[in-house]
Amino acid sequence: MNRRPFVLPPHDLHKHEMQSGSSALKPFSLKIQNLCKSFGDQTILSNLSLDLPSGKIFCLMAPSGSGKTTLFRILLGLESADSGNVNVNFQTKTQAPPSSALPCFSAVFQEDRLCEEFCALDNVMLVSHGTFSRQDAYTALCALLPAEAITRPVSTLSGGQKRRVALCRALLAPSSILLMDEPFTGLDEETRGEVIRFLKPLVSKKVLLISTHQAEDAEALGAAVIHL
User: Fold this and answer.
1) What is the mean pLDDT of residues 162-167?
2) Which of 31, 62, 140, 204 has the highest CB neighbour number within 10 Å of its CB?
3) What is the pLDDT of residue 65?
4) Could you read off the pLDDT of 43-61 as tens digits, one per residue?
5) Is the pLDDT assigned to residue 33 strictly greater than 90?
6) Residue 99's pLDDT band (cuts 50, 70, 90)
7) φ/ψ bin of 182: left (φ > 0), alpha (ψ from -120 to 50), beta (otherwise)
């Protein structure tokens, strides 16, 4: 319904990546070493170590309560680890890059965390920081939503439509490391496929870490699977 493919010519896609900070970075990896976290007597993470190179997609698969969301919160600085380290390692042995070129995070939480009184377009524009235009945001949203839904308050959208707005916002936000906590919840199979086709070209130079319970998601994304 009134959707059009989100297709950017290679030059424009490269321009967007440059603005979002991903192309400005040399290849890097997000390295997690011996991360531990407990709540009281309950151990959530025990000596977790991962090496996640940029340009790849990773699916984190584990039963509920295994620490996926806790790991994301630690990486985002919303929770403190009991011990361990999280570092960004650049693959080339050169002088440290300027702080403006260091990797930064974007996230999709289990909750949509939208401004309900704002329209979908304004929700996405909240994270632009001058890196993409209002027209860019509108074009992207047209790949995921009916055109009439883009300028309505998100409080009037369905749960699946809100989820797509949250996904679009995180994907367009300037970032080099993207964390998605069960991002496809509430999406039917067809819509899930549309979202996956939409996101893959936008994360080609980033680290994308997704938590999911669906093996089909990992297969559709061409992702490496990590079991906690």
Assistant:
1) 97
2) 140
3) 83
4) 999 999 999 999 999 999 9
5) yes
6) very low
7) left
DSSP string, 48-92: EEEEEETTEEEEEE--TTSSHHHHHHHHTTSS--SEEEEEEEESS
The two tokens of residue 81 are 């680890």
Residue 179 makes CB contacts below 8 A (sequence gap 6+) with 72, 75, 76, 105, 106, 107, 108, 209, 210
Name residue 167's beta-bridge partners: none
Element (H, E) at 122: helix 120-125
189-199 vs 159-172: helix crossing angle, rounded to 10: 10
* 58 touches 52 (CB < 8 A): yes
pLDDT-based confidence at residue 9 (cuts at 50, 70, 90): very low
Mean pLDDT of 112-119: 97
What is the secondary structure of 162-184 as a DSSP string? Answer: HHHHHHHHHHHSS-SEEEEESTT
* Strand-strand pairing, 105-108 and 83-90: unpaired
* pLDDT for the residue 17: 44
Which candidate, 175, 177, 167, 215, places its Cα nearest to that of 53?
177
Please name the residues in contact with 114: beta carbons below 8 A apart, sequence gap of 6 or more.
123, 154, 162, 165, 166, 169
Q: 159: how many CB neighbours lie within 10 A of its CB?
A: 10
Reference 209, options 83, 101, 90, 105; nearest CA is 105
